[in-house]
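Journal club side-thread
Mid-discussion, someone asked how the predicted structure for our own chain would compare to the paper's figures. Pasting it here so we can look after the session.
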Amino acid sequence: MSDPQLIVDDLHVRFRTPQRIVHAVRGVSFTVGREKVGIVGESGSGKSTVGRAILRLTAPNATVSARRMAFQSVDLAGASENAMLKVRGRRIGMIMQDPRYALDPVMRVGEQIGEALDGRGLSGAERRARVLAMLEAVRIRNPQRVYDLYPHEVSGGMGQRIMIAMMLLPEPDLMIADEPTSALDVTVRMQVLAILDELVTNRGLGLIFISHDLNLVASFCDRVLIMYAGRIVEECRAEDLAAAQHPYTRGLLASLPRIDARRERLSVLQRDPAWLND
C-alpha cells in the first residue's frame, strides 16, 4: 500500500430522530493511499454515510466525531466550512450514484462541467477546450454535441461519464465513488469501470469505491473493507476476498449466485448480535 493520503480514525456518525439517536457509523478506522479501496456491505450498513462524513456532507441532524480524520495536511474533522469548500470537488471529488439527481436539469452539460474550473482565471475559450478534452478522456463521442445537451438528453451511462469528467477536471488527489454503476446495465457498467480504472491509474489518484456488489469490488479494487451495522468487521486484499474469514463476509459470499456452482437454494445470511462488539 502507498503512503496514506486519507486517515480516518474512530469515526462515529449519529443521527437525531424524533424517537431516538441512530448510531449509523461506529468507530470506523482506515487509510487510503494512491490505490482503490472498496467499501462493501448491505444497504444500511453505513458505507455511504462514511463517504459523506469524510466530505462533511451529512444531513443537518447528524453529529460526526472522530479521533482523527485528515486528508494530506487538512484536518477534516476540525476544518471550517470555508476550508472544506477548498477541499470538496477540488482535492476530493465525489461521484454520486445516479447522475439524474446529481446534475442540474436546466444547465447544459458543458456549462456544468466547466463550473469545476471556477476561480482558475480561464477565458471562455480555454474553459471550453478543457471541458471538451475531458469529455474525450471519458470516451464520449462527439463531445462538441454533448457539450450543448441538457442532462435529460443523455443516457444513464453517458450521464455517469459526465459526472466522472466533472469530478476529474479539477485534478483531485482522491475520489469517492458511491455506487457509481448500480443504475447501469452490465455492458455500460463495465465500460464506465474501465474508464474510471484507466483515469485513476494514469493520474495516480486514490479511490474509495462504495458498493454492495462483492464480485465487482473483488475484481476492481486493491483492498476491501466489509461493513456491518456501522462497523468494519473485516479488511482484506481484494484478491483474497473469496477466502475471507469473518462469518458475516462468508455469509455475504454464500448468498451470491454463481454460474459455475449451481444450487437449488441460496444461503440466507444469518446475523449474530456479537458482531456488533467484534
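Post-session note: The longest helix spans residues 186-203.
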